[in-house]
Amino acid sequence: MTLFLGELANLVGGILIGDADQCCRGANPPEDARDGEITMLDSISRSDVLQQSSASAVITPEEVAGLTIPQIVVENPHLAFSTAVTHFRPPIKNTSATHGVSPTARIADSAEIHPTATIGDNVVIGERTRIHPGVVIMPETVIRNDCDIFPNVTIYHYTQIDQRVVIHAGCTIGANGFGYRQENGRHLPAAQLGYVHIEADVEIGASATIDRGSYGATRIGEGTKIDNQVMIAHNCKIGRHNLICSQVGIAGSSKTGDYVVLAGQVGLKDHITLGDHTIVGAQAGVMDDCAGNEVYLGSPATPQREQMQIMAVERRLPEMRREMKTLKREIEQLKALLRKDAEEATSSEKNQKVA
Amino acid sequence: MTLFLGELANLVGGILIGDADQCCRGANPPEDARDGEITMLDSISRSDVLQQSSASAVITPEEVAGLTIPQIVVENPHLAFSTAVTHFRPPIKNTSATHGVSPTARIADSAEIHPTATIGDNVVIGERTRIHPGVVIMPETVIRNDCDIFPNVTIYHYTQIDQRVVIHAGCTIGANGFGYRQENGRHLPAAQLGYVHIEADVEIGASATIDRGSYGATRIGEGTKIDNQVMIAHNCKIGRHNLICSQVGIAGSSKTGDYVVLAGQVGLKDHITLGDHTIVGAQAGVMDDCAGNEVYLGSPATPQREQMQIMAVERRLPEMRREMKTLKREIEQLKALLRKDAEEATSSEKNQKVA
Amino acid sequence: MTLFLGELANLVGGILIGDADQCCRGANPPEDARDGEITMLDSISRSDVLQQSSASAVITPEEVAGLTIPQIVVENPHLAFSTAVTHFRPPIKNTSATHGVSPTARIADSAEIHPTATIGDNVVIGERTRIHPGVVIMPETVIRNDCDIFPNVTIYHYTQIDQRVVIHAGCTIGANGFGYRQENGRHLPAAQLGYVHIEADVEIGASATIDRGSYGATRIGEGTKIDNQVMIAHNCKIGRHNLICSQVGIAGSSKTGDYVVLAGQVGLKDHITLGDHTIVGAQAGVMDDCAGNEVYLGSPATPQREQMQIMAVERRLPEMRREMKTLKREIEQLKALLRKDAEEATSSEKNQKVA
To answer: Do the chains contact at C229 and B233, CB–CB below 8 Å?
Structure first.
């Protein structure tokens, strides 16, 4: 699959600035790209993201000044990048025409594959990993050593699963993200060319679903534990050692730091970031970034102390409303009294004048 | 299965008013019934629903005056209609005793059926449709051309799936609705004799569940996109080109218009209707009909503008409570002041009198 | 598996007070233990739980005075009890190496097992029970007569399912509970040595998940009906004839009485108890025990009457805020008026004095 940059520039119809003989082994968004891979900028105003990236080349709409890595300049960087990603990770429609294990799969000797499982083309399964009955692993997926994939789990193509990962029954890893664009009144699916990467020592509860990234990874960090029926949308980056309780939903492209705790039925908006050690209480709805090291409650989620005060007052709202009516009446009485005083004063003045 | 109306009247023990030799090919509720089918009225006060129906005959508790279609008058129309529905769509307990594809299934030549899939009796699969590993399709289901049914999906009997539908892994289409009646302290299941109809170009995310109708269809309109872990209950009618985000739950018999958007974790009460272009924000709970062309937030869901104002005040509740205490104190002070004035006035009057 | 108590005391390294030749057939927490089984106290201050238990022996950190059943005194009762539980219910990693039905399973003659189902070692299936395609039943599970286990359900080891239970497609019964302890910055799984017990006449909707207990049972009471996508966590005890609607989540160790109704998307905190005939409205979050025979709404859930009053005021909050501003202004005006009066009074006094 490896291409010379010159070939890749031809493939995407762009102008190469840099070494045409440099090899390119993959295409990924800046934060997922590794050494030897190409990445993409959709605007040169965001070129600072390249500083944190390990990418070895970049597709860009204009030449970026002062860049040390080769650039391929194109008119439509999204289209060109899709073409590149599709070259390195071609879409796969069919799981496997064959029963059982594809002849092109590489299965470690000590792995246990149940005869009712389906293992697609070019899948790699590590030592001592157990694939239970009814599991379907689609092509190009890699599962490393000592994993347990429980019955009836489906793992889509190109998924990466590191050591000692446990996935309970009925999970779906790597289905398409929920991304559409409207055209002539119809919703057309956006590209879902990415993958899911689950790091070491993650455990995932029954019937959880984790969608593949658009171009790069939806990532679950090392040691994170995910409960049943959790939904993690495309492009999310979940940190290390999180605890994500049952029925939590995390919308697209959101990020959590390390040691984040999300209690049951919490919802996270898309494109937000929760800092390390953020704790979110049950049923809360997080609508904005959270700095970390803090507890949030409620929907919209609010720092615990503030939310507790709000909730305390909410419980006393009927009483408050009654108090307010009392105040209103008392003010009316005061006003009436003062009006009377004023009238009396006036009449007494008149009397005095008369007198 | 086709019956003459005379035969059907005998079957349900009713009196036929109309042509005994007219053919009847099915039984469905008024809005699902097509030409050539019989429908049901449970009260003649609702006979206007027949005007929107394509039904060619009706089961009714009393003769409906001025009706052009044949009527079968019975004592218990629900019981009689159940009998009719059960004739045309007999309940099926067994998926298929056989491994793989039932000999009575009709599979298009270009369809791809994985050898681990189970295809029940009389199932029809269209051209180029792909049935992935571990999929179970129960008897009498029809899936048309160019569909993709991903691994480990279960589709219950009598489901109708139109062209270009994509169903991701782990979905369950057509399980029994959650309907019970209590008798002697036990919950007895209500009839679940209907089916699910998914129209063309629908995409359904992983682990979503859509229950079958009681007598007729639970319907998903053309072009609607449904995200992971969405739950759609029995008898719902979802409009065309909706976007229904992850973990949304829609209770029984609710309806949405076209281009409705429901954000993540939204809940809809049963038997409500959302107009075209209704948008509901994340985690909202819709308790009433919504007119359409409006954004709703919160639980209970409220038009955006109103809810934003409520939420703005909610955040200031602790401050409001403090202000209220201040007002209370100030009123006490005013009252004290006026009391003092009054006393002084009195004493000065006394003094004057004394003087 | 049966042990003499003397053998069991040796196994767990404890001192036996009582008859060494008494037989012990199992180990379970006090409320799950049956006659002939051993149970555990983690503190002798809780020894009153033994009065409700049918256990025939107990593991305890100190000798309990006045107890009629044998005691095994150990330093670490949790560790000793885990050892005992593990003896009677050894952990099982593999479902079955074989295709189809294990040779050690006992299947009733009239049961129907689909050829694509996997039935593990020592599983028992009762008369007329139907196991649909793709179902995976892990070792040591018992399913009694007249059950319907729909396609692609996974049932983990040691599950107990009584008569006439219906489980719809895609459910997972008996996966590990979500319990971890932190050590050196990593989450280590707590013991999940228990099981799920589903009593007679329970119906469970598609894609529901019920986790196994830590040491004993997660129990679903007789006649209870559970809708799609419900999550019931480890150690919960659900009462009889409950109705649990779609997408409800119940956290660990919570209990419901009989005839409890939980509407859609309700969440229950861990370790709480809902009395008989409790009704909880849609999307509510129950944070505390509920006495029963009452309707609760909102998050945190509050008795209906109180919550309705709170919600009525919430809707009027913007109006209330405006009223409050008006009151504030009026008080300011009153204060100004009184100041003016006071000034005039003073100046009139001065005038009088001058006069």
So the answer is: no
